[in-house]
Amino acid sequence: MKTALITGATSGIGKSCAHLFAQQGYQLVLVARREDKLNEIARHLADKYAIEVKTLIADVRNNAVLTAVLEGLPQQWKQIDVLINNAGLSQGLDPIDKGDTTDWDTMIDTNVKGLLYVTKIVSGWMISAKKGHIINIGSIAGKEVYPNGNVYCATKHAVDALNKGMRMDLLPHGIKVTAINPGMVETEFSVVRFKGDEDKAKKVYEGLEPLLAQDIADAIWFAVSRPAHVNINDMLIMPAAQASATLVNRK
Ligand code: NDP
Ligand code: 8X3
């Protein structure tokens, strides 16, 4: 049986991936901070699909705790076929002089450093196994910069660079590396960006049909299910009503 490790599995894209990979018969290692939510998802998937699911309650920013929980997995759970580096967030949408430096730290520590900490450990396991596939969740914000997106865009540009860099470094080990870069997906993303302001979050998607988390999970599954000799390097996926980070056709 194959195993997928998904970070940020309590919501949105990560949660949809957990469902889809469970449906495909994968056993799962799910990582996130919200313990009750993660355990509930794990119980549901284990019952529904008769698979084994391990939950790791960890903040990807905390390298010491993250390393302890990952290294504490039983040996057979360290055979990871697919790593989905999905945990991430945006905080605030302010011009550079008005940005909150705590928000900047949170985004850089989660989207860049957290992704690196997880990748260092799991890619080591994949190298030992001589196989594996790493999926990095980037963004349109890693391809374009938009006003007030400054630091979030910088973190996703870093993910874009790391995606290319890790593909080169892991090439001799036969490990595939793919970036999936979504445009607007309606998840908890905007509620988190606007710190719980649901009305402001809803306005982001007003007058257009955004992507669903399931659309991104489907794209990830497409990349993962290609034949062994094929790698999808990079995918940019937008709602039909979005042409760029800022150009949206609202009705
Ligand atoms: P959600 O807010 O719905 O999900 C984010 C997930 O990340 C949650 O499960 C959250 O879990 C987890 N997470 C956040 N911080 C941490 C942390 N420090 N440690 C562990 N887990 C963490 O957003 P999305 O599903 O939309 O976002 C998933 C990814 O997709 C992100 O990387 C985001 O940047 C990217 N993306 C999203 C787009 C969108 O429009 N929605 C577009 C392009 C990219 P918990 O709070 O329980 O820890
Ligand atoms: C999320 C998409 O356009 O809000 O990465 O930055 S956007």
- What small molecules accompany the polymer chains? NADPH dihydro-nicotinamide-adenine-dinucleotide phosphate, 2-hydroxyethylsulfonic acid
Structural domain count: 1
User: What pattern of helices and strands is seen along the backbone?
Assistant: EHEHEHEHEHEHHHE
CATH topology, what is it called?
Rossmann fold
Number of β-strand runs:
7
Please give the oligomerization state of what you see.
single chain
Please outline the major beta sheet: 7 strands, parallel
Q: Tell me, what's the shape? A: globular
Taking all Cα atoms into account, the compactness measure Rg is 17 Å
CATH class: Alpha Beta
Output mean pLDDT: 98
Helix content: 40-55%
Instruction: List unreliable stretches of 5+ residues.
Output: none
The percent range for strand residues is: 5-15%
From the 3D coordinates, which CATH architecture would you assign? 3-Layer(aba) Sandwich
Instruction: Please report the distance between the alpha carbons of the first and last residues.
Output: 46 Å
Specify the CATH homologous superfamily: NAD(P)-binding Rossmann-like Domain
Number of helices: 8
Structure classification: alpha/beta
Strands of the biggest beta sheet: in what spatial order?
3-2-1-4-5-6-7
Family: Belongs to the short-chain dehydrogenases/reductases (SDR) family.
Keywords: Oxidoreductase
GO molecular function, one term: oxidoreductase activity, acting on the CH-OH group of donors, NAD or NADP as acceptor
InterPro entries: NAD(P)-bd_dom_sf, Sc_DH/Rdtase_CS, SDR_fam
